[in-house]
């Protein structure tokens, strides 16, 4: 167990309210006396703690989140004025200590509930709001004086780098969905022309767990740990993870996505989906169901085209 939630990763680092309090007392004593409560989350990288009324503590659970706190502290203040939705406001970066191995962070609390088709009033408006945010991010060229070394790379080979893992993950999901059709889609995708434009800024993990809604409308995008540069197809994943076929049409039209980029985005959604279906079936049932639904949407669309 990690705190009061099941362990999701075999090599997960254990966290608890007691650990969070020790780290706070040692590094940020001005906040150490505030109420602290672990929040249940379908997220896979961080343990989330509500701190007082208006802050949140994020402790990475796994080594692949070890650079997120520093990345977000650097980039989020630079991006916030340029984007049409709220994003997290970093307040502090904590250092490893007391046996805990990773940098961690404190952010301003953002109100809202997870954005889903049930929590938003209109899917078409959701699609337009998603497209507007992605467009604004893609049009934000990193200033020359800023460092890009912390950014994830989603270059021309981003699909081929996932090839072996995606094939193995797909084969391991036999019986959960049409794995033969998934393998066919993936093979087709590897033959697509690579993105030939300039690399764009990408959130990297656009999915409902990283989106908040208020009063029936998309209000915020959170968790920029996968922020990167590369092929705009990467942020299209959300189309199959959240939207119906009608919503995808609205989303695609608003972004003016060409056929090859759309197909690469669909393949990326498949790759991330099949990996999550295999990995989180037991350890994170909410994320498993969400990922299986995305794979089903991907395959349904592809089946109609072939």
Q: What's the short story on this structure?
A:
By secondary structure, the chain is α+β, with helices and mostly antiparallel strands.
Please characterize this protein's 3D structure:
The chain is built from nine helices and eleven strands. It is α+β, with helices and mostly antiparallel strands and 306 residues long. Strands 1-2-3-5-4 form a five-stranded antiparallel β-sheet, with helices on both faces. Strands 6-9-10 form a three-stranded antiparallel β-sheet, with helices on one face. The longest helix is centred in the C-terminal third of the chain and has 21 residues, at 259-279.
Proportion of strand residues: 15-25%
Secondary structure tally, helices: 9
Measured as a percent range, the helix fraction is 25-40%
Given the helix and strand composition, which structural class is it?
A: alpha+beta
Q: How many strands, what sense, and barrel or not for the largest sheet?
A: 5 strands, antiparallel
Are there runs of 5+ residues with pLDDT below 50, and where?
A: none
Gap between N and C termini: 45 Å
Q: What gyration radius follows from the Cα positions, in whole Å?
A: 19 Å
pLDDT averaged residue by residue: 93
Instruction: Let me know the number of strands.
Output: 11
Envelope shape: globular
């Amino acid at each position: 167990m990690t705190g009061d939630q099941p362990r999701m990763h075999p090599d997960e680092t254990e966290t608890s309210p007691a650990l969070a309090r020790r780290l706070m007392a040692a590094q940020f004593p001005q906040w150490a006396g505030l109420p602290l409560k672990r929040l249940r989350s379908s997220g896979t990288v961080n343990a989330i703690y509500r701190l007082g009324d208006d802050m949140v503590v994020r402790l990475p659970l796994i080594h692949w989140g070890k650079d997120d706190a520093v990345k977000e502290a650097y980039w989020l203040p630079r991006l916030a004025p340029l984007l049409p939705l709220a994003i997290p406001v970093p307040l502090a970066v904590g250092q490893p200590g007391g046996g805990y191995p990773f940098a961690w962070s404190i952010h301003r609390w953002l109100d809202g509930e997870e954005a889903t088709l049930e929590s938003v009033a209109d899917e078409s408006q959701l699609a337009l709001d998603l497209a507007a945010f992605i467009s604004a991010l893609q049009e934000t060229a990193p200033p020359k004086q800023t460092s890009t070394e912390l950014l994830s790379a989603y270059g021309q080979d981003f699909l081929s780098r996932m090839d072996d893992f995606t094939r193995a993950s797909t084969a391991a999901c036999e019986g959960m969905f049409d794995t033969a059709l998934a393998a066919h889609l993936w093979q087709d995708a590897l033959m697509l022309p690579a993105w030939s434009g300039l690399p764009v800024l990408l959130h990297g993990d656009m999915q409902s767990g990283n989106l908040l809604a208020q009063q029936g409308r998309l209000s915020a995008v959170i968790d920029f740990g996968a922020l990167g540069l590369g092929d705009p197809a990467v942020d299209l994943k959300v189309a199959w993870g959240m939207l119906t076929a009608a919503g995808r049409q609205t989303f695609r039209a608003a972004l003016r996505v060409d056929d090859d980029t759309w197909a690469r985005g669909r393949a990326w959604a498949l790759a991330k989906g099949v990996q999550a279906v295999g990995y989180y079936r037991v350890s994170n049932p909410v994320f498993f169901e969400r990922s299986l639904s995305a794979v089903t949407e991907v395959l349904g669309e592809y089946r109609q085209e072939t």
